[in-house]
Specification:
CATH architecture of the largest domain: Orthogonal Bundle
Order of helices and strands: EEEHEEHHHHHHHHH
Strand content: 15-25%
Number of domains: 3
Helix content: 40-55%
Strand order of the largest sheet: 1-2-3-5-4
């Protein structure tokens, strides 16, 4: 699986973009929410990716943030929602706006997105209700260009606990028990997990 790409933005023709990674051109499809944050053609770019394998094609999707990619992946799990509709949802609303729409159970807002009828909108709201808290929690992973800096071991450990299936309040409680200055991310996670079983 390709997790992210870092290279030079060779072309952008919504919804398609081309990223040159050391002489290899990766063709990606991306939502408009990602396009709005892209640099000028020829400049450095980094994108989170998701690969969809179909019988007739392998399609690589690109996202400006890990939050966008997580929402895209969650949407793909819903019956009747494919990559095209998921891209439409991300193009029509930011992750935060979409989550507010789900919490408000705003069917009308979702039906304004091309390709989404009333039945699909209702199904999306029902199936995404439980995911809202998980998707709104920080992951500790921003744009991969800056992945090496700017994230504390505490926030990285929080992201790791969330990905292990802990609910945000539980993850925060476990980290409180493991809080000690100077610890590495691995040490914090180890202590947090130890306090969970003790």
């Amino acid at each position: 699986m390709i997790g992210f790409l870092k290279g030079r933005l060779a072309a952008k023709l919504p919804p398609m973009l081309l990223v040159d990674v050391n002489g290899v051109g990766y063709e990606l499809e991306a939502p408009m929410s990602t396009f709005y944050g892209l640099p000028a053609t020829g400049e450095a770019v980094a994108l989170f990716t998701h690969l969809v394998v179909r019988e007739d094609a392998h399609v690589l999707f690109g996202f400006g943030t890990d939050g966008e990619r997580r929402l895209f992946r969650s949407l793909l799990k819903i019956s009747g929602v494919g990559p095209k509709i998921a891209l439409g949802i991300l193009s029509g609303a930011s992750v935060e706006e979409f989550l507010r729409t789900i919490e408000a159970e705003d069917v009308a807002m979702l039906t304004r997105i091309p390709g989404i009828g009333r039945k699909t909108a209702e199904r999306v709201i029902i199936e995404m209700r439980d995911s809202v808290q998980k998707l709104s929690a920080p992951t500790g992973a921003g744009n991969p260009l800056f992945a090496a800096t700017g994230h504390s071991p505490q926030s990285e450990a929080y992201g790791a606990l969330i990905s292990l299936g802990y609910k945000p309040p539980e993850a925060a409680r476990l980290l409180k028990n493991a809080d000690e200055p100077g610890l590495s991310t691995t040490d914090i996670i180890r202590r947090a997990l130890k306090s969970a079983v003790s």
